Amino acid sequence: MRIGITCYPTYGGSGVVATELGKELATRGHDVHFISYALPIRLTTNDHVFFHEVEVLAYPLFEYPPYDLVLATKMAEVMARYELDILHVHYAIPHSISAYLAKMMLKDRTIPFVTTLHGTDITLVGNDRSYLPITRFGIEQSDSVTAVSEYLRRRTIDEFQIERPISVIPNFVDCNVYDRATDKSARKRFAGPDEGILIHISNFRPVKRVEDVIEIFSRVRKQRPARLLMVGDGPERPKAEWLANTHGISEDVLFLGKQNDMASLLSIADILLLPSELESFGLVALEAMACEVPVVATAVGGVPEVVRHGLDGYLCPVGDVQSMADACLRILDNPALRAELGETARTRARQEFCASKIVLRYEALYRQTILGSHSR
Ligand code: GMT
To answer: Which architecture, in CATH terms, is 184-352?
Structure first.
């Protein structure tokens, strides 16, 4: 198939999933055309992977340059020139609307589009009254719609009164890349032999509750030697740094900024901390599980569909930093438990969420969507 993919190309789960999906589809022989304003961070082009940049003209009249219109124009151009069979957009706003416009522009050919809902497109942006009607319209006009968890599917149907079917296709990891590395020398860079390593990876937005990460670690650190790796960057980082200072633990909290090789960092960690206010899936939890890292997270949104409480880690109420600290101490003080949780988590990640399995489901959906649009 000739497949177009549009996503946000910067750091963030939806862009990562879209990029990995495109790479997998290309290795399976499809031609994949990425259409976005920048090359997605984990993407390199090759004989089957192409990148089409959306360049927005900066005109003085445009206080808000109309990216969605330029994107629609580029989509239509790529769809026609490369005779795409289907377009797959990740994140509803504005991508599903641009895809709809592109489809309307190509009146002589019917090229269907699939929208994948990732979470904040529904729970934050889409739910804002100024975006709700257009988000609902984008969902209704898509030829197929998927959500990354059952939680997100249900919430979309309930809050947007959607009557059309939405399929759940969960996120995935490349199990060859996300596996626990055996070389433990990197551990010495960050921690002494007796120190446990906790890790948090995110875009440091308010929804991630990075201050809770520091509060949890502070409680753990009072009880035993440990280090915390803070990976990523975003608006809440200064608050987290300030809080670590206030607690007098800044020497043990290492802010590493944006990193590319997550599997290596996860491979030296004992626990992933994910105390988010909300996660529709929690891709980073899955990446950690694949690397045998138990997860201590909040029982919110789609997280319980990924992390099973007591099996792959522990799930606690939002803001209950003491319970999350207790769960971390239980794991760090008991190496056998840590190993068991890690092994169970890895098995689950490999059995349920490997790219090799999930990508087949997208392929099947594309074929069904193309067939459906031809018979209409
Ligand atoms: O978290 C965001 O700000 C947006 C979005 C993204 O692009 O990373 O995250 C959502 O999509 C991810 C990939 O499907 C999910 O793993 C995240 O749980 C989801 N974030 C939220 O629901 C808060």
So the answer is: 3-Layer(aba) Sandwich (3.40)
